[in-house]
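Possible regression after last week's pipeline update?

I re-ran a chain I had predicted before the update to compare outputs. Posting the input and the new output here so someone can diff against the archived version. Not blocking, just want to make sure nothing changed silently.
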Amino acid sequence: MTALATEDVPPTSHALPLKNVFRPDEIGPCLSQEKALSTAPEVEQGRFKVPRIMEEP
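New output (post-update):
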């Protein structure tokens, strides 16, 4: 069996360097609440109404 000389190799978590790509937060155009809810099947108190998926404790 052949061994590799790894004494001088620093430990790494990834084989290739990782780089996060961020963009600056910028305020842009958005929908009004009325426009956003205009095509919702059901609305309640100014919000989307969805079926309950969890029971009360």
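Follow-up from reviewer: compared with the archived run. The chain has a mean pLDDT of 90. Marking as no regression found.
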